Amino acid sequence: MQYLLMIYEDEKVWNALSEAERGKFYGEYMAFTADIKQSGHWIGGNPLQPIHTATTVRVRDGKASITDGPFAETREQLGGYYLVEAKDLDEATKLAARIPGARLGSIEVRPIMRVG
Amino acid sequence: MQSAAAIEAAFRRERARVLATTIRATHGDFDLAEEAVQDAFAAAIARWPVEGTPDEPRGWLIAVARHKAIDAIRRRVKLREIVSEQAAQAAGDACDAPSERVAVADDRLRLIYTCCHPALATEAQIALTLRTLGGLTTEEIARAFLTSPVTMAQRLVRAKSKIRDAGIPYEVPEAAQLAERTGAVMAVVYLIFNEGYAATAGDTWIRRDLCGEAIRLGRLVAELTGDAEARGLLALMLLHDARRDARTDARGDVVLLEDQDRSRWDQAQITEALALVPDALRGGPGPYSLQAAIAALHASAPRACDTDWRQIAGLFNELARRQPTPIVALNRAVAIAMWQGPDAGLALIDQLADALAGYHLWHAARADLLRRLGRHPEAAAAYRAALDHVGSAPERRFLEGRLAEVSGSACDTR
Fold first, then answer.
1. Candidate from A89, A113, A116 with C-beta closest to B119
2. Of the candidates A109, A87, A90, A88, which has an alpha carbon nearest to the alpha carbon of residue B176?
3. How many other CB atoms sit within 10 Å of the CB of residue B408?
4. What element of type H or E holds B378?
């Protein structure tokens, strides 16, 4: 099965880290990514630009509206994701627990819906 | 020849095992497996009276249910036309299994761990466990938990679809996770028991049934896992449940442990539990085993005044080390009061004021010790505080009775 591992964290917490601490996280992310590529779990994944770069598009009555935001009401924002192949939910949650960001924020694990 | 009632009884007895194995054949599809098991039961009703009861009814039911499930998978595959490789593979795997001589492995353990998977909400874990492993219908579970059958049915549907769609494995967890996951299973079983035991509300009959179900499940978990703490949990539930008839009087009012008519305790159940306790206590006992040991000391005292409070206080010390919660500390303080006198207990209870000031039993325990010390005006104030926080009517009546007692004797010149 494929799972999307969504990394949620409070950007304020991330920004409050020192340069050295952030560097350590980047290193851990690179090592983790290399590791799950090696083990065959990795399908894709990327970090996202911070929430202030987000734009929301809605189409209502055939008219597209484009707005700044979302203005997150939640404390944690989506900061990146991995798309992985895992045998079942237990394997997926084990991968999720190894993501460095899991120690700062939380990882939402969602199975990919197969269409067709 | 067997009557329909006898077949139904056999089915009730075997349902969980048949279902557990069928779910494995359907690769974790609970709904499909439940339908197939229902069909197998219908087939038994039709065929056993005519053909005679098979030598191994369980094996027969499993073989038929698997067959029905495989048929259904095939039909689905055909229906879809686009035969995705995966589905064909799944059906193929299932067909390859010899359907004549079915290995009657016990799959109930897989079923327990899947139903109590931490990715499911606790209410869903409870409902699913009672529905698949217990003998309760959706309506009965709804009644026990004071919700509508529709709500309960939806909860079950959502849980089953999460198992299927999120890929919750139908497996016994690996060694590294086993202890934690067994702990989650025991927590569900004990929640079911307490729901039945607490009797805060709801239908008495169904609540007693819940205690029975929890004990049955606890027995199963202890038997299948061989876990010492699971034996402790079983003993604990058996000991509490053994006192069920003596816990309330004819009016439904609470009877305290020390005032209970001990001849009304279920001695057969106590004997069974006492035999489990030494084994459960071997090697760093867990919280359930320690509580079972405490309950065992109460159960083996012929009269309330024979209770070995020194040992009980020691066990509460041990429990408080493992579970440093205010409630455990309160129980420990009460045990110490019984062993060393009300003064010692009161000092410990007063230290818990910040944590438990909103809890009626903290006030009630304090009131009781003040009463024993003859400090009646203070006891009366504490009973009044307990009454401010109490929920159930029988407990309220008990506290009001005690309040009247200390208020009366405060002016008593006797």
1. A89
2. A90
3. 11
4. helix B376-389
Interval B320-351: pLDDT, tens: 999 999 999 999 999 999 999 999 999 999 99
CA distance B92 to B84: 12
Alpha-carbon distance of B414 to B402, in angstroms, equals 18
Please report, as a single letter, which amino acid is at residue A64. Answer: A
Nearest alpha carbon to residue B168 among B115, B242, B100, B229: B115
Residues of chain A that touch chain B, judged by Cβ-Cβ distance less than 8 Å? 1, 3, 86-90, 92-93, 109-111, 113, 116
| Measured distance CA(B282)–CA(B202) in Å, rounded | 38
CA distances from B17 to B12, B35, B126, B154, B400 (A): 10, 15, 18, 24, 50
Closest CA to B24 of B101, B90, B83: B90
Give residue B413's pLDDT: 37
**Measured between CA atoms, how close is B34 to chain A, in angstroms?**
22
- How buried is B311 (Cβ within 10 angstroms: 0-12 exposed, 13-18 middle, 19+ buried)? middle
* 3-class DSSP assignment, residue A44: strand
Q: How much of chain B exceeds pLDDT 70, in percent? A: 90
pTM of the model: 0.82
Q: How far is B95 from chain A (nearest CA, A)?
A: 22
Cα B332 → chain centroid: 24
